[in-house]
Every structure is written in C-alpha cells, then in structure tokens.
Please model this.
Amino acid sequence: MLAKDLISEVIPSLCTSDTGQKALYWMDIFRISHLPIVNNEDYLGLISDKDIYDLNMVEEPVGNHTLSLSRPYVFENQHIFEVVHLAAQNKLTVVPVLDLNNHYAGVISVNDLLFAMAQFSSLDQPGGIIVLEMNIRDYSLTHIAQIVESNDAKILASYITSFPDSTKLEVTIKINREDLTSIIQSFIRHNYTIKASFMVENNMESFYKNRLESFLKYLSI
Model:
C-alpha cells in the first residue's frame, strides 16, 4: 500500500492569505492539529494549532508572519510503513504527500492511516495474539511459523520490538484462531517464553484451568 492510495479527499490545504481563525476552524472540523500551507502547487510546510496560538495570529493571514515551519512529507510512491514512521517521528496528525515532481498532492490523516494499517496488517481480522520474549540470537520466524502451523493455524502478521542496551526482543504474532490454547502449549514445550496472550476470555479460562489441572497432577506424582 502506497502513500498515494491514502490521500484524503476532504482535508483542505491553507494558502498564505488564509487566516489563523480559518485554519483553526478546519482543524476543529477534521479533528486534526496540523494543516499544510500551499501556494499553487508548492508545499511550504505544516502549521499547527499551537503555532497559531503562540503567534497570536488568529485574525491575521498566516502569511503575515515569518513562520518557522517544519516541512515533513512523503512522496506518493512511498510505502505505508514509511508514512507511519514519519507520522510517529514528528507526532503529526496529517502527513503531506508530494508527487514525483515535488508538487503538493494532498495529505493523509492519522485516523485514515491507522484504519489502513489495521487492514494491511490483518489486525481487523478475527484471531488471537501471542507475544513471545527471546534472545535476539534465538529468533527464527521460520521456527515460530512451524509451531503455529503444526496446530493447523496461520500467522496473519508479525512484529518485532527490540530494546536499547538489551539482547532480548519481543515477537508479537497475530494468528487466525481465537483459541490459542494448543499453540501456547506448543510454544511452552519448545521452551519459548510467553510474555502475553490475548484471546476470547472463555478460551483463556479453559487454558488456565488445564494448566492448573496438569500442575496438580504433577504434584500428586
């Protein structure tokens, strides 16, 4: 999925003759905190509601002030992951998009971005989630997938979280089954550390009940 596929059809841009009041009105309407300033097809930068209030420019055109505008953007052919990275890095509520000629093409709202990510990553599909913790040298997505597939299930999506100054990482997997009981037991048999799991509540209760029964049988030996 590319940036051009996510461009909003409704969020407008500002020109330098628009007032701060107009900018705040549009921001309120679309529930965003940033808007691009564009002259003709030239993208000048983003202005935020904080910029407008700090400069006390509500009644004046935004072009009347010397603005220290940030100018983040992506090109229309960049991948959705790069759009997410830019939005997160700069704490944006919209991400400006330029075409391959450096002309302004539109913006992507963070709300639309989140919705697209949910679809792209299968997060909107039914299923359960398992979070594994392991040393970096022990990570093998192939082996993890083999364990899941040996239980007649499939991995819909996977994510890796690493930590500074640590040899450990977390692997989060979305699986196309809501009952993860047998899959969790398989991971435990293969000496994986289950940091967290998320599935239908009654399946969780059944899982812990089975674990307790197994433990009690072990104590009675």
About this structure: The longest helix spans residues 201-220. The radius of gyration is 24 Å. The chain has two domains: 3-119, 128-220. Helices lie at 20-30, 49-54, 80-90, 110-120, 141-149, 181-189, 201-220.
